[in-house]
Amino acid sequence: TGTISSLQRQLEIQESQLRRTTSEKETLQRKLREQENQLQAMSTKVPYHPESTVAIGNSLIYVSPQAVTEQESKLAEQNKLIGELQGTVSQLRAEVLSSQHHIHKQQQAQQEIQSRAEALQHRELQTRVALERITSRFERYRSKIIQATFSTAGSKPPQAEVTDEEVLEAMQKIINERLEFHQMLNQKGVK
Question: Contact 119/48 with Cβ under 8 angstroms?
């Protein structure tokens, strides 16, 4: 944005110089036309005297080409300057367009990144919700296992938080006792 502002200021300065130079060129052209008109007016107003006409004509011809040459030289310089300024203005406009195009591409990339970030945030939220559901189900399942394990006959209810290893040991103990009881019944012939 700073580069574009700088380029636009340069462009405005160059365009201002171009307008000023164009105005000066027009002024020079107008002065040149006025001098030509004055020369024509002087030549029509002066009565025809062959001797004086030749003398005035010689002096006019001698002075007039120099003035015309100076004006044409100034005009050529102004035209050259105008050409240079127009080239600079064109170059600055191209740079501004290039910078604007680059900024537009950056904005599109930023919007795409923002869109992806929003999609990732949405997925993260969905994942957290799913994780909370799974955690809640796991805790309920664990609670039921603990309840079933420690509510059997001969088990002591836990006094504090029970670890997974303690629950596993208690379940293993219950399973082993049942297996032993089942084997004892099989040995006595009870189905």
Answer: no
What single DSSP character describes residue 160? S
Given a contact cutoff of 8 angstroms between Cβ atoms, the answer to whether 127 and 139 are in contact is no
Mean pLDDT score, 134-152 = 87
Judge residue 93's burial from the number of C-beta atoms within 10 Å of its C-beta, 0-12 exposed, 13-18 middle, 19 or more buried: middle
End-to-end Cα, the chain, rounded Å:
89
Assign residue 153 a region (left: φ > 0; alpha: ψ between -120 and 50; beta: otherwise): beta
Q: What is the pTM of this model?
A: 0.43
pLDDT tens figures, 12-34: 888 888 888 888 888 888 888 88
